Amino acid sequence: MTQRAHRLSLSLRSSPAERAIRAAVVLSLLVVVQVTTEYIVRLQGQAAEELARAAATQQLAVLRAQVEGELASTLHLTRGMIAHVAIHPDMTEETFRALAEELRLEGRHLRNLGLAPDNVLRFVHPREGNEAAIGLRYADLPEQWESVQAAIELGSTLVAGPFELVQGGEGLAARTPIHVRNPDRSQGRYWGLASIVIDVDSLFEAAGVHEVSRSWPLAMRGRDGLGMEGDVFLGDPEVFAREPVLMSVPLPNGSWVLALELRRDLAPAHLQVPLVFRLLGLLLGGVLATLVVLLMRARFRNRQLALHDDLTGLPNLRYVRDRLERLHRRTRQGGEGFAVVSVDLDGFKSVNDAHGHQAGDRVLGEVARRLRDTTRVTDMVARVGGDEFLVLLPGIVERDDLERRVRELSLALADPIALEDDGTIEVAASIGGALCARGEESIDDLLQAADARMYRRKRSRGR
After folding, report:
1. What is the mean pLDDT of residues 20-33?
2. How far apart are CA 383 and CA 113, in angstroms?
């Protein structure tokens, strides 16, 4: 090698310091890529968890509505018989049989019906196979007397069970105390007890419980309506220990609790991050920015969804509270005032009871639309509860202007609402408002003032 070539070779060699810096940069880049990959892995896992929980929540909400609807419709069937006894306490076997047969035709989940004047079972349908039960005194049956006494003390329906039936299967016992009506139709003396036995398997099959349990780890607890304190009577009790989605099913004077375990396998494939992703992260650093952008967009969308009501699309309580705080702060700093209007639907529960939850959802959606159409672009309409709405009116600082806007909202909600079965529902609303002209009141005081005026109107109309 010539001297010149040797010098050139030496000049191309890095110094130890330069090699150390280069190695440090390379190592740093590898560490950054690996740390970023691990960060993405964790975020992807959280996103998968959120999607799995959202899917479980949606599935469980549908199931709860179906169970509640099936049970409520079955319990409602006995109201006619109870009312008949309250007015005509001299029940005959012929009359009871006619009433019971009619109820059995309507109630597909009914196994047995009974009437126990003075807590002695004297009328049973079907009579065949239950002859031995006639004449039984509830006070002589310790396993039933406690729930019977509880129903009498409450003065309303109490659901016991599920429990094993002698004839096979499981049943629920719904017992309702009956009081004879006085001539002025007020409640008089205690007459006895009406009881029905509901076929649990038939009820749950109709409500879709068995279908869901074939695809999801599902459990239910709250035997005898004791909620979380009650025993597990459906599914694997371990489901309750695996951080499931929980929802309460209301019963007369009690509740059940549904638990649905998350199914993470339902998350999209790109969220089910395998172990090899950590190794590929070293080679796929170029796609890091794309993944981060996609993740940020997904998280932004999740945040947006968290600020809006799923059913109506309106802002929820969290969103409207933030807007309210900004308006209040601006008013205290000398800006224009605003008004808060509280809207509460009258008798909305009866809509769900009479027409079902689908009709109730349609009513809420139509009310939301009418409120939006009646307000300005600068106003905000929010759903803050089951049948409760809140309207923010920036720039409204005079009582006359507020009352005019309240009247406009009332008129917008006055027209009947069409149902899918071509029927209509009239849903009135109680509305009250409060003004914030200088920001001297607190936000809670404003909301309480609006609610107070709303409830005064509700009471004045006898709602």
Report:
1. 67
2. 42
